[in-house]
Amino acid sequence: MCGIVGYLGLKDAREIIINGLKRLEYRGYDSAGIALKDCDSNHFSVFKDKGRVAHLESITDYTFQSCLGIGHTRWATHGEPNQVNSHPHNSAKGRFFVVHNGVIDNYKELKSTKLKETVFESDTDTEVIAHLIERYSYKMSVSEAIRKTMSLLEGSYALAIIDTEDPNHLYACKNKSPLLLGINDDGIIIASDVMACVGYSTQYVPLEDKTFVEIDGASYTIKDIIGKEVPHEIKTIDIDYFNIEKGEYSHFMLKEINEQPAVIRTIINEYFDGDKVILNGKTSEAIAMSDRLYIIAAGTSMNAGFIGRELFEKMANIPCEVHIASEFAYNMPLLSKKPLFIFISQSGETADLRAGLVNIKAKGYRSLTITNVKTSTLAREADNFVEIHAGPEIAVASTKAYTAQIVILAILAYGLSDKHIDLRKELSKVAISIENIIDKKDYIEQLVKEYLTKRNCFYIGRGIDYYSCLEASLKLKEISYIQTEGFAAGELKHGTIALIEKDTPVIAIISQRSINKNTRSNLNEVKSRGAKTLIISTRSIHESDDQIVIDDVFELFSPLLTVIPAQFIAYYAALERGYDIDKPRNLAKSVTVE
Ligand code: G6P
Fold first, then answer.
1. Which superfamily does CATH assign the domain made up of 246-437 to?
2. pTM, rounded to two decimals
3. Ligand 1: which residue has its CA nearest to atom 7?
4. Ligand 1 atom nearest 398 alpha carbon
5. 343-358: pLDDT as tens digits
6. Which residue has the CA at smallest separation from atom 5 of ligand 1?
7. How confident is the model over 526-551, as pLDDT tens digits?
8. Secondary structure of residue 284 in the 3-state scheme
9. Which of 62, 190, 239, 514 could bond 6 through an S-S bridge, CB–CB 3.0 to 4.6 Å?
């Protein structure tokens, strides 16, 4: 993970880098650092420490002007988050500063073979890069030294590099980790994500793997690893500045929960012409041609995938499997004759998914990515992609991307379905029903105070509700740190019921008439062992003492509603405990390491 921002130009490098890092904190936020050159001298200053970008801002010297700098926000992989391990890292003689996103798999080997004499300051893998570049810079040009270093690195990296002896240049290179250039007449930005460039650049250049970039302020050259110039595409930044600000909301998560009805309406506008679904023909064809779908995803996107499986199997009669991306990449199941691999990822950058995509591409199989970021690696590298149009999602705990993914999966499944429903109308109904739940958020906050009083909690449900429980419990544990399990209601009695004691919160999701009675009897089992039960049910099957009653919609779409109270439950439980809701501990939004 980690976020990188670098700048060389006529503007204030410090402002561009610090603001950019704040927007990239979703990539990791356990430490942050910046190296800046003083415009009036050849002096470079480094500020770095454990903690957030706001802390970095407070320790950065603002008394000098700077037009060149590189910055970093970290999610620790090698070495604990402390001042020494924070980036930028400096080479042995102090000539080069380097910031890095990724993991160098062979860093130990490089230390013991190429850098035997070097004294290392930090525990990071990154430091080898700074030392290697410096070492080769004695024998060749800086560009060649960087490319030589690239040729030795195994693993993933996006790098921004400063040569303190030549402050008219800034360098970057990448392999597997994302990196792009934000371009403007008065300077060039290097960044992990286009979000860092919004407000400063209107155009950007996504960089391909194994490319190297030399920037001289007004212009840039992109080369491959052997130094041959490579063609590139300039794209327009179409992210609205207001979409990446919190506005009236106290947290991005609250804003994003509230945006869900609007997101569903945006998807309807994007993918419907009247009542007809309009999708890229190749996408529908790829699904129709396959004999089995394999959904590959991680975290919340995997939970959306479970709902997708229900939709594909129950609406479209296509067999579908869901696989944990990190398992699938190295332990592929026995495949059907005509498989289609569907990669679901909010960010489109998750390394565990990419490893799987690389594997199946090497075997010649077809792929489809469903993502929120159309410029992402997974969107670029799959045969087809479908954009979910959720808009930038900033809070680490995913909310609107989850519902958007399910809506897209419903649209894909519907394309092959023989069920005669008015999909547009049903989805519009869902948007209105979500608004009805949002109106009850204060009441849900009260329920949280009353019920979520313990260090642990269970969500239980059956069928499609079980999959909603998986997402509901992930949300709660991610941000409130309450140990929560999503359980198939009928399975609890086979062991885990041993954990139920007086006042253990058990939340049931019941949206399907066919399993209503069964789940309620499982609730009775836990109640009689002291559990405090809270029930989310749909109007047509609710009982008088169910606490949260939601509207009836087309049954297979109920996960789009049942998740909303669960998102609020997580939000208010975290708020009550005073945690950092948008940036929960140990997590990052875009996980670009395996
Ligand atoms: C991280 C995030 C999760 C997210 C998962 C998959 O672990 O903390 O919230 O669900 O990555 O991310 P993706 O971008 O692939 O959907």
1. Glucose-6-phosphate isomerase like protein; domain 1 (3.40.50.10490)
2. 0.87
3. 299
4. 9
5. 999 999 999 999 999 9
6. 299
7. 999 999 999 999 999 999 999 999 99
8. helix
9. 190
